Amino acid sequence: MLAAPINPSDINMIQGNYGLLPELPAVGGNEGVAQVVAVGSNVTRLKPGDWVIPANAGLGTWRTEAVFSEEALIQVPSDIPLQSAATLGVNPCTAYRMLMDFEQLQPGDSVIQNASNSGVGQAVIQIAAALGLRTINVVRDRPDIQKLSDRLKSLGAEHVITEEELRRPEMKNFFKDMPQPRLALNCVGGKSSTELLRQLARGGTMVTYGGMAKQPVVASVSLLIFKDLKLRGFWLSQWKKDHSPDQFKELILTLCDLIRRGQLTAPACSQVPLQDYQSALEASMKPFVSSKQILTM
């Protein structure tokens, strides 16, 4: 293993409240990048020196070495940055599929999302910009809000607003200069998701892919009746079950092209040596974290 991030879903899996749980004893970590050092005589697709990432969750990436079957791994190009390769298999894939699979968006259309400074949020901003889509990015208010806003705008965010600003009546005027979003991406739940729904255009879709507030999604009856909004869910592990390994590989290569063109960078990262994993785990669970912890081997 070369590097492996700590994602919220990794923590959920350890806590036992994730949709996929490995048999115990197990190694933590669902994502990362490794370099092949040796292959068995029946291996045909991989060779020593290749960079690989897990094909599916639950492989256990927080370790220095492992022996895996060829089917459990997908080769990725080694000419992309290490941090990009280590964080390629989960967040950018989720962002890309949510932007492509739920609404037929055209350049100039807008998308609204919460948790915009998360790993998925940062990928949504960049992939949307590459597709010519405009983004309204909602974040929690915090002491360094201007710094965060500037950083997200440098990635391609058109608007960065706080949860409180989203609730204000003046938001009605906001859409005079911008089409109402047809797609909302929800990683929080609770009041935050209700506010996203209120901003959607008639017939629009809200896709939920996380629940950081640990509160249910509440949709008012009037929004469902008079705006005919759709509530959907997305889980990358299920998408992989519904599609072939080749289709996942195609998705990875599409994202690698964006990385090479400079249109998709890794999220803000803090590299931590594997032996300091406890401090990395603690840091990853603190509120208002804008930097992803990456374990380096």
Automatic annotation (TrEMBL):
Q: Where located?
A: Mitochondrion
Q: Offer an example of a GO molecular function term for this protein.
A: enoyl-[acyl-carrier-protein] reductase (NADPH) activity
Q: What class of enzyme is it?
A: oxidoreductase
Q: Which residues form the Enoyl reductase (ER) domain?
A: 1-295
Reaction it catalyzes: (2E)-hexenoyl-[ACP] + NADPH + H(+) = hexanoyl-[ACP] + NADP(+); (2E)-decenoyl-[ACP] + NADPH + H(+) = decanoyl-[ACP] + NADP(+); (2E)-octenoyl-[ACP] + NADPH + H(+) = octanoyl-[ACP] + NADP(+); (2E)-hexadecenoyl-[ACP] + NADPH + H(+) = hexadecanoyl-[ACP] + NADP(+)
Name the domain of life this protein comes from: Eukaryota
Does Membrane appear among the keywords?
A: no
Query: Listed GO cellular component terms?
Result: mitochondrion
Alphabetic keyword roster: Fatty acid biosynthesis, Fatty acid metabolism, Lipid biosynthesis, Lipid metabolism, Mitochondrion, NADP, Oxidoreductase, Transit peptide
Q: Which InterPro entries match?
A: ADH-like_C, ADH-like_N, ER, GroES-like_sf, Mito_Enoyl-ACP_Reductase, NAD(P)-bd_dom_sf
Return the EC number.
Answer: 1.3.1.104
Record keyword Oxidoreductase present: yes
What is the role of this chain? Catalyzes the NADPH-dependent reduction of trans-2-enoyl thioesters in mitochondrial fatty acid synthesis (fatty acid synthesis type II). Fatty acid chain elongation in mitochondria uses acyl carrier protein (ACP) as an acyl group carrier, but the enzyme accepts both ACP and CoA thioesters as substrates in vitro. Displays a preference for medium-chain over short- and long-chain substrates. May provide the octanoyl chain used for lipoic acid biosynthesis, regulating protein lipoylation and mitochondrial respiratory activity particularly in Purkinje cells.
Name of the molecule in the record: Enoyl-[acyl-carrier-protein] reductase, mitochondrial
Q: What is the gene name?
A: MECR
